[in-house]
Amino acid sequence: MAARRQTKEGKPLSQPDQRGPRTTKRGDQVAEQIKGWITDGKVRPGVRLSKEAELQQAFNVSRGSMRDALKALEVQGLLRLSTGPEGGATITEVPLERAFQSLQHYLFFQNIGIEDIYAARRVLEPMLAEGAVAHLSEDDFEAMERSVDVCEPFAASHEHALDQRHEDIHFHDVLAAANPNAFLRCLCQIINQMLHKLVVVAGNVTQRDYQAFGRTTVAAHRAILEAARRRDADAVGRLMQEHMEQAEAQLRKVHAALRQKLVLDSDLGLHERRNKSK
């Protein structure tokens, strides 16, 4: 059969359906039909499809077309392919990194700058943080506390200072993960990915200016953390609004810019992740 899990009606997935245009390549047709299975709930994340040869026979396509279909779905983040006796194609949820990569490939051809990111961030981050407060666990508070602690005392070296700035963003990742609004969470997490991967600081910025940025950020994060521990959502939203305005001003002082680039799998560690699954 084409998949090892049965349908909701209890019938095995023995044959592909006949949806999809007939003028496209056979591999593309197969990929579209497997997407249809996912859409219809016939296969869900964690379900392993049958072996490649069985899929090839079920879809009545060549080995090359079947591999093209599976590879296309892997690139889209809908499948994980592994080799070995227990290998094969497993349905997966699309990872955030892949969503970020696709969006950045679109934005590469647009004129996007730091000011554009913060125009959105000033609106989204206070809303995200305020909505996360009621859902923060003790583990979340500890993670936020560790994030603040990592950024104090302030780094002597520029390289260590950059590591601390990445940890600053992790503070926001913790808040994002706690917010139950999946769409808002996704938007803010993708923005955080952009800040992690694409923001660069001018080489002539003094250590004094960079450390001033760090001090301002740590003070803001500590105030937000204290308000969150009190479960004061209104205060968290207000403090986050102030923090976003301060952060944008500080980034201007260190002449930060958004580096326009196509994001490679290697930038996101996707190559390494795939290799571990093989």
UniProtKB/TrEMBL annotation:
Residues 1-11 have a biased composition (Basic and acidic residues). InterPro entries: GntR_C, TF_FadR/GntR_C, Tscrpt_reg_HTH_GntR, WH-like_DNA-bd_sf, WH_DNA-bd_sf. This is HTH-type transcriptional repressor NanR. Keywords: DNA-binding, Transcription, Transcription regulation. GO terms for molecular function: DNA binding; DNA-binding transcription factor activity. The gene is nanR_3. Residues 24-94 form the HTH gntR-type domain. The keyword Transcription regulation applies. Coiled coil: none annotated. It comes from Pararobbsia alpina. CDD domains: WHTH_GntR. Residues 1-31 are annotated as: Disordered. PANTHER family: TRANSCRIPTIONAL REGULATOR, GNTR FAMILY, UXU OPERON TRANSCRIPTIONAL REGULATOR. It comes from the Bacteria.
